[in-house]
Design goal:
By secondary structure, this protein is of the alpha+beta class. Among the domains are: 2-54, no CATH class; 169-318, Lysozyme (Orthogonal Bundle), CATH 1.10.530. It contains 6 helices and 16 strands. The chain has helices at 169-179, 222-244, 250-262, 270-277, 283-287, 303-318, and strands at 2-3, 6-7, 9-12, 15-21, 27-32, 37-43, 49-54, 74-76, 81-83, 184-186, 191-193, 195-196, 202-204, 208-211, 291-293, 299-301. The strands form 6 sheets. Strands 3-4-5-6-7 form a 5-stranded antiparallel beta sheet, with no helix packed on it. It has a 3-stranded antiparallel beta sheet with strand order 12-13-14. Helix 1 packs parallel to helix 3. The longest helix has 23 residues, at 222-244. It is globular. The two termini are 33 Å apart.
Length: 325
Amino acid sequence: MTFEGQRRFDYLNGNLYSYHPDALGTVRLVTMQDVSVSGDNVLYPWGQSWTYSGSSTNLFAGFQNWDGNVGAPMYPGQFRVYPVNYGRWLTPDPSGKKAVRLDDPQTWNAYAYVRNNPTTLTDPSGLLTPAGGVDPFESTHVYTGTIESIDQGTEERPAGEKAQQQVSQQGIDFIKSWEGWNGTLDEATGLSLPKDDGFGNGTIGWGHNCGKCEDFAGGMTKSQGDDLLQSDLVVLEKSVSRITGRKATQQQFDALVAFAFNVRNYQSSTLMHNVASGVPVTEAHFTAYGHARNSQGILVSVPSLLRRRESEWDVYASGVYNSSH
């Protein structure tokens, strides 16, 4: 359970765990329902473990998740990944040149974490900290728009650089086959109305997540759904092209966009990090995202998601567009 953007409680195996963060959002103490201490945690300013007793949460500076499968923790922000042993982001600021101010040298390094000031600033989103007017005890950036509000390629492309990649028709058909048509038929109008996707999200058309779906309350036709899918794909094509450096093969690009279409925080995934860093990708990087949280907020394996991740890997590795579920 989260409060004001930070995880405060977990209910696991019949026990209630309460998380007690410091002013920067690093969890320093974990207590149970009987007020006994389950974990006591102290980290260095850049996030490395100093000392702990009991269970260590590794919830650092407002980050809500961490990947401990690669040695020292790596924290996936909304837009990039922060490894504590490096003390810097693995990829440059996605705002690009728009984040640079000539009068502020700390903005010149697009990999710098919190302007090299981790004792007073936080950045769980992965966007560059502004130069002034920041409350040091609040997150330095709260992202409230869509991915299109971040610079995704509007700047002039250098001569010789490849154009943005696009999903093939095979890739579009692959996404459609896995998403299926989302909508409840209104027999009076013949239009498809939004429906719940089973995880508390309103969807319509070919897997378009519409939240409360006020804009689609009247329903839509399949032709309108096709147009909406194209609009969704344009945004993802821009984003994934940036991640791949426009160097992916067609089958790889199709698989990555299909993954991004279905995984909300795809940009902070280990898969996308490896692609951006040139690290070899394996099937496990896809299947690691075959889980979802149930109504109790517990992360559980979902067979249909696992099959989808396996099919995306087949596209990525072999060019096999398998739509059988």
